[in-house]
Design brief:
There is one protein chain. The protein is of the alpha/beta class. Helix content is 42%, strand content 22%. The chain has a 7-stranded mixed sheet, sandwiched between helices. Strands 10, 11, 12, 13, 14 and 15 form a 6-stranded mixed sheet that branches. Strands 5-6 form a two-stranded antiparallel ribbon. Helix 1 crosses helix 2. The termini are far apart.
Length: 425
C-alpha cells in the first residue's frame, strides 16, 4: 500500500470517555476495544487508507482522496453504532481534514495534523466532523445518501483561526441533533488522569545511527504503553511535532490534553551508550520517576528491546504511586486505602491463585475504607476475571476482618512465613 503524499486527507478517531469506561467496565472494554480496532482497520484499509499511528483507543489514518476518507469514516461509524456492545455504551468520535502534510518514513508532520486533532477534540461521541476544507471539495463527491450538516464555527484550542465545521451524516447513523460537542471539562479531566505523551528523545552525543536508535526507542515505548489499554498515550506524530524545540512541559501537556510527559536523551561515547528517561507530572512540573540505562553499542536491537521493556514497565507503577502520595495530604483513611490498593495490585497482577485472592482481600478493605477510589473496583474486577479465567469461578468473598489492634490490615492476608494467603468467611 502506497503512502499518501502531497495533499493528504486525514481521519482521526478516539473513544469518548475511555478512561471512565475502563474504570467502570474493564472486562467489557477489553472485548470492546478488540472489536473496535477490527472495525476501524477494515473500514480504513478497504478504502485504501494508510494507518500511520495508533495509541490506546485512537487511530490516525491518511488517504490520498477525500471521498475515500469520507466513505471509510461513514462505514466505520455505521458499523460501530450497530455493534451490540455488552455492558458499555462505546461511542467513537471522528474528524476529517485535508491539507498539505510533510511525510517522512511513513509518518506525517505539520499544521494539517494539528488542525485535524483540534477538530476531533470538539466532536461528540458518535459524531463525524469535517473541516470547511473538506466541505468545499466534497460537494460533488459525498458518499451515496450522505449529507453535511452545518454546525457552525468552532474555536480550536491554541489555534488563532476558528474552523467552520460540518457533521457528516447518512442513514444508519444516530441522530445527533443537539449533541453536546466541544471540550467538556469533566470528560477532559477524566481522560487526562492516565494520559501520557512521549517526546522525542534528545541525542546529546552520537551519530546518525544513534538518532535512529532514539526514534526507534520512542516508537517502541509508545507501542508498549498503547498495548496496556488502561493508559492513554498520544500517537507518535503528536510528540514528534515538538522535535528540536525548547518547550515548557506544562504547555505541551495542556496543548495535547495529557497529564504526564515522558522525555529522555541518548548519549554515545566510543563503544558505550547511555539512555536517560524521566517522567513528569505536568500539573505541577514535578519529576515522579527517572532512570538511566547503559550498554555496549554493539548490543543494538537487544539493548533497544530491553530498555523499552524497563521504561514501559516502570511508568504505570510510578504514576500509580505518585497518585497515592497525593492522598497523603488527605484524611489518613484515604492513605490507608491507597496502601491496600498498592499491595493488592501487586498480588493480583501475578495471576497466581493465592496471590489473586489475597489481592482481592486488600481491594475489599480499600473499598470499605474509601468507597470513592475507582482503582479498587477496577482491580477487583480484574481479579474476578483472572480467577474465573485461570482458576475457576467462585462466589466466595475474602475476609476483610481487621486486627484487634485497630490497624487497617486484614488479619487473613499473610501467613506466619510471610506468604500471601486468604481465609474465607
Amino acid at each position: 500500500m502506497s503512502t499518501p503524499t502531497g495533499t493528504v486527507t486525514f481521519m482521526f478517531t478516539d473513544v469518548e470517555g475511555s478512561t471512565r469506561l475502563w474504570e467502570e467496565s474493564r472486562e467489557a472494554m477489553q472485548f470492546a476495544l478488540a472489536r473496535h480496532d477490527a472495525i476501524l482497520r477494515q473500514a480504513i484499509e478497504s478504502k485504501g487508507g494508510y494507518i500511520f499511528a495508533t495509541g490506546g483507543d485512537a487511530f490516525s489514518a491518511a488517504f490520498q482522496r477525500v471521498s475515500d476518507a469520507l466513505e471509510a469514516a461513514l462505514a466505520a461509524q455505521v458499523a460501530l453504532q450497530g455493534e451490540p456492545w455488552p455492558e458499555i455504551d462505546l461511542r467513537v468520535r471522528m474528524a476529517v481534514h485535508v491539507g498539505e502534510a510533510e511525510e517522512r518514513g511513513g509518518d506525517y508532520f505539520g499544521p494539517t495534523l494539528n488542525r485535524t486533532a483540534r477538530v476531533l477534540s470538539t466532536a461528540a461521541g458518535g459524531e463525524i466532523l469535517v473541516s470547511s476544507a473538506i466541505a468545499t471539495v466534497a460537494v460533488d463527491s459525498l458518499p451515496a445518501e450522505a449529507s453535511l450538516v452545518d454546525v457552525g464555527e468552532r474555536k480550536l484550542k491554541d489555534m488563532d483561526r476558528t474552523e467552520h465545521v460540518y457533521r457528516l451524516t447518512a442513514p444508519g447513523l444516530a441522530d445527533l441533533d443537539g449533541a453536546e460537542s466541544g471540550d467538556r471539562a469533566s470528560e477532559e479531566t477524566d481522560d487526562q488522569r492516565h494520559s501520557l505523551v512521549v517526546l522525542p528523545f534528545d541525542v546529546i552525543a552520537g551519530d546518525k545511527d544513534t538518532e535512529v536508535l532514539a526514534d526507534g526507542l520512542v516508537e517502541d515505548i509508545i507501542s508498549a504503553i498503547s498495548a496496556w489499554r488502561n493508559m492513554s498515550v498520544m500517537s507518535r506524530h503528536s510528540g514528534f511535532a515538538y522535535r528540536g524545540r525548547l518547550v515548557d512541559i506544562r504547555e505541551v501537556a495542556e496543548d495535547l490534553g495529557v497529564r504526564y510527559v515522558l522525555e529522555g536523551s541518548l548519549r554515545q561515547s566510543e563503544d558505550k551508550i547511555r539512555v536517560a528517561a524521566q517522567l513528569i507530572d505536568a500539573t505541577d512540573g514535578s519529576h515522579i520517576w527517572a532512570e538511566q540505562y547503559d550498554s555496549a553499542v554493539e548490543d543494538g536491537f537487544d539493548f533497544q528491546d530491553r530498555t523499552t521493556r524497563r521504561i514501559a514497565s516502570a511508568i504505570e507503577p510510578a504514576i500509580f504511586h505518585a497518585e497515592g502520595r497525593q492522598l497523603s495530604t488527605k484524611p489518613e483513611a484515604n492513605f490507608d486505602a491507597w496502601d491496600h490498593i498498592t499491595q493488592g495490585r501487586k498480588l493480583i497482577e501475578t495471576v497466581h491463585q493465592d496471590e489473586v485472592e489475597a489481592g482481592m482481600g486488600h481491594m475489599h478493605v480499600a473499598i470499605d475504607l474509601h468507597p470513592g477510589l475507582a482503582d479498587a473496583y477496577s482491580y477487583l474486577g480484574l481479579a474476578h476475571f483472572f480467577r474465573a479465567w485461570a482458576h475457576g469461578s467462585t462466589t466466595r468473598r475474602p475476609s476483610t476482618r481487621r486486627q484487634s489492634s485497630g490497624a487497617n490490615v486484614p488479619s487473613e492476608l499473610t501467613t506466619s512465613n510471610g506468604a500471601p494467603t486468604t481465609r474465607w468467611l
